[in-house]
Amino acid sequence: MKTPFFVWLFLILVHLLHAVSGQCLSGQQSLLLQLKDNLKFYPARSKNLVKWNKTSDSLVTGLRGGTSHCLDLSYNNFNSKIPQKIGNLANLSVLNFSNAGLEGQIREEISNLTRLVALDLSIQPLLIPPPLKLENPDLSMLVKNLKQLEELYLDGLNITVRGNEWCQALSSSVPATVILKSLSVIRLDANNFFAPVPEFFVSFSNLISLSLSTCQLNGVFSKEIFKGLPTSIGNLPNLSRLELANCSFDEKLPNSMTKLIQLVHLDLSMNMFAGPIPSFNMSTNLTYIDLSHNGLTGTVPSTHWVGLHKLVYLDLRYNSLNGSLPSSLFALPSLKNIQLSYNKFSGQVPDFKNVSSSILDALDLSSNHLEGIQEPYSHPNLSVLDLHSNQLHGKIPILPLASYIDFSSNSFTSFIPHDIGNNLLATFFSLSHNKFTGVLPGSICNAVYLRVLVLCSNRLSGKIPECLSAMALGVLNLNRNNFSGSIPDAFPNNCSLRTLAVNGNSLEGQVPRSLANCAALEVLDLGNNKMIDHSPCFLENIFNLQVLVLRSNNFTGNIGCPNDTVTVTLKGLEFELVKIQTVFTSIDFSSNNFHGEIPKELGQLKALYVLDLSNNVLSGQIPSSLCNLRHLESLELSKNDLNGAISASLANLNFLSFLNLSYNQLEGGIPAGNQIQTFSTASFQGNKGLCGPPLLDCTDGVIRMLPEIPKAKIEWELIAAEIGFLIGFGSVIGSLVFFRRWRKWYFHHVEDIAFSILPQPLLRKLLLWKTGLVAKTFLAIEAPVVRCPSRSH
């Protein structure tokens, strides 16, 4: 549109501002229709302008007289300057020229619009050079009279100021200070101020939005800007969405939040809010509440939730809330997801009222102090029920038809019901860390959807049901029970098993040869049983095996296989690393009856971190090929019949942090000039023929006593094959996500699944490894028992 038309438009608008009637005067109508004829617009996309005709009584939207006047010409293409007569629109309260295609100098006359509440002169920040300039008048002159201004948008302009003059322009005069205290929105993006961050924003008591991106600011923002949530938040009765997650707020939640009666979405998670939860029973439009990961305390009365018939999601995890669970929650008709874990709730798990009409999909009450659960506990639509790490006791309740059920780390006693599997539709089922006794019923094999079964750390006895090996399980963990007999040997072709853990039982017999059908097997933990078998060559075709624990059994024979294709990795251990770049691997054949020489082919396992062959009857020399294990952190060969000298090539093991060659028949001098001599005497004792630091000095044939150099004590922590358990569990998830209800929950709660399986310290370390950060971990030397997931905080 040409310039004269734009000036003409203002003449029309000035005239219209004096109109008090709801209809157009004939002169106004004529002017508007002439204006329409000279405007270029898209009729197909127009909602109002296209309807202007001689029969319509039209006024420009927002210009109806009275106290509220708005001129919004944003997102047009006028290609002209701001007219001088803009200052005649004295009643304007809102002026929006954002991206209107205006150019040149911003008019000083805008400062005469003393009733302005919102001023938007912003343009796209990518326009170079910016078409609008704020030079004469400058910023100070523009705002000096705008005492009622609440919202100021100047982003993308060419504001001509030097250094921090823009700050002074807004704050130096008394009228400007008054303005600033009323401002709720300030947006000055994409202005090259090249100045320190101003501190006067602290005095903006009504400031809601501050945007200063791409302004070349430097220095540090005052912490006072980010104080706690003000009580004035209650003065926003029309607020519908409040999201202040991860902002480091550390004060109490103001009670004035009860006044936010139009609130629909509330997210204050990942802060340090303290004190009790305010009542939300007046905010009847709420659908989403997330107050997780804070320091909230006190009880949660049922009256807080009465009337929230639209609430769909509630998350109060990781706080310190106590008392009984609010029963009114379980009667809300729209609620689909309740997350109350990691608090201090006690008492009974409430039953569901009107259970047939409830649409609840996920209920997580784990890591609390709950003591009882009413029976029967059934629910038609529940996909996830997580009650782990509570104080539940007695008999296990009748199970819901859920996809994910976790009752682990409680005090359930008695027997596992004989019909446990007949109505079990879960893909994940854990009863670990309880006090169940008796046998594992064969009906468990009727749970055809089951993929992860965790029963470790109970008192189950008898034989393992033969049908378990024929199921489509991905993870089977029976560690630390009293199972006897042998491992079932009926694993089918294309077996899907990825983790088999039976550590700490009384199992006998051989390793099932049908395990060779489980090509996907990654974790095999047979440690601390009474199994008798020969060399581990039966595993030579399982190329994905990453964790193998054979420790403390009665295995015999040679370690090596005829084709020397040793590709297994054993016994997951943790130790101090800067970064994990390869598959975490280890070998542990300790405490068996393996004999013969150590295969030189072990040197081909370039990714090996731990090698433990201790407490066997191995003989011969330590193969020099071990020098190729450049990532090796731990070498444990104690209590064997190894002889000969220690190869000087072991000096290449630059990452070696633990070494134990004690109680063998080694002889000669300990290689000098490398870190091997820095290990303590305990690493070499029991070898009568060895000498040299740190043992007796044998240089020049003269034996001299050497002072013991104090060394920092290393604290060992047993973790064994949990890493392998993680690998197995992560792999099996792929098959689980094909279930629609499980998949929907899984993608929202993968973190909680990991927390329900692994001890938090281990999970934390694994997450650090994943991000490439420094992980302080520990190397396990003693019995590598695969532990069940613990629920420690």
TrEMBL record:
Pfam family, one: LRR_1
Membrane-topology annotation of the record: Single-pass membrane protein
InterPro entries: Leu-rich_rpt, LRR_dom_sf
Keyword Transmembrane tagged: yes
Coiled-coil parts of chain: none
Keywords assigned: Leucine-rich repeat, Membrane, Repeat, Signal, Transmembrane, Transmembrane helix
Subcellular localization: Membrane
Main location: membrane
Tree of life domain: Eukaryota
Signal peptide span: 1-22
Record-level GO cellular component terms: membrane
Transmembrane segments annotated in the record for this chain: 718-739
Transmembrane recorded as keyword: yes
Protein name: Uncharacterized protein
Organism: Rhamnella rubrinervis
